[in-house]
Write a structure and sequence with these properties.
CATH class of one domain: Alpha Beta
CATH superfamily of one domain: NAD(P)-binding Rossmann-like Domain
Number of strands: 12
CATH topology of one domain: Rossmann fold
Shape: globular
CATH architecture of one domain: 3-Layer(aba) Sandwich
Distance between the termini: 36 Å
Strand content: 15-25%
Protein name: NAD(P)-dependent oxidoreductase
Order of helices and strands: EHEHEHEHEHEEHEEHEEHEHHHH
Number of helices: 12
Structural class: alpha/beta
Organism: Paenibacillus selenitireducens
Pfam families: NmrA
InterPro entries: Ergot_Alk_Oxidoreductase, NAD(P)-bd_dom_sf, NmrA-like
Length: about 290
């Protein structure tokens, strides 16, 4: 039985759908299990149960983990990440879980430090010292995060960033979920650290060109100085400062550390990852 933390997130939701198709028993944890149960029922997921649990309530986690032997751990980034995920790992051990699949981040880089990557590095160390079998998935930029560009693309025919002409790895969250399902259901692929990307890299100017063709009007990418970008994210996008810092840091990392695609998705799943062209076409009407 698989316990799922993050079942309502972008990756976790896709994982639930994949496990339903595979017929694999799982227990999806949520603070609002009624809403999650309704969605699972709508998808025909008789093999997935939704249970009440809160990451800040360790006793509820212990109850939810009891009777499961694997844990999928995907939490939204936050300044409390190290403390919360470390507590979850310890409770999982007490409840008898034997294998944890953790969504992490690209490896921490001294040349261009990203604070959130440092948090994940410390959590990975906790896993390494836990005595459990653990699998770490390190995806690069989510294609789904490009949907955040919609407001300014729609109203101003432009979007902003601090990556210059640097290329970035993108991956569809559904491919991350498919890899998670693979390592949760195939012991031969578990117990590794996997860096996940799509099959191509793209710069923001290239994405602007793709959007221009799809929308049949000129879409421009405007490059900003990092501090200007940070201030805009805080003031205009209403991001908390730590998250604005994170967005700028990962974009700056792309300008310092060249990004190259991996073949991990194809090796694990036996198919090519979803393409950015297909993702943009699919979301054209948003």
């Amino acid at each position: 039985m698989i316990a799922i933390i993050g079942a309502t997130g972008t990756i976790g939701n896709a994982l639930v759908e994949r496990l339903i198709k595979l017929g694999v028993p799982a227990r999806a944890l949520s603070r609002n299990p009624e809403k999650l149960h309704a969605k699972i029922k709508e998808l025909g997921g008789s093999n997935i149960e939704a249970v009440m649990a809160d990451a800040s309530d360790l006793s509820s986690l212990y109850r939810a983990f009891t009777g499961t032997d694997q844990l999928f751990l995907a939490m939204s980034n936050s300044p409390q990440q190290i403390e919360m995920e470390t507590s979850i790992i310890h409770i999982a051990i007490q409840a008898g879980i034997k294998h944890i699949v953790k969504i992490s981040s690209p490896a921490f880089e001294e040349r261009s430090p990203v604070a959130v990557a440092g948090w994940h590095e410390k959590i990975e160390k906790v896993l390494a010292e836990s005595g459990l079998t653990y699998t770490v998935l390190r995806p690069y930029a989510f294609m789904q995060n490009l949907l955040r560009l919609i407001p300014t693309v729609t109203t101003q025919s432009m979007f902003f960033g601090s990556m210059g002409n640097s290329s970035c790895n993108f991956i569809d969250c559904r491919d991350i979920a498919d890899v998670a399902a693979e390592v949760l259901t195939n012991r031969e692929t578990a117990g590794q650290i996997y860096t996940l990307t799509g099959s191509e890299t793209f710069s923001y100017p290239q994405i602007a060109d793709k959007l221009s063709i799809l929308l049949d009007r000129t879409i421009r990418y405007i490059n900003l100085e990092p501090e200007v970008q940070r201030n805009n994210l805080i003031e205009l996008a209403q991001m908390p400062p730590w998250l604005a810092d994170h967005v700028v840091e990962i974009q700056m990392m792309a300008t310092v550390v060249p990004e190259r695609p991996t073949d991990t998705v194809k090796r694990l799943l036996g198919r090519d990852p979803r393409t950015l062209d297909a993702f943009l076409q699919e979301n054209l009407q948003h």
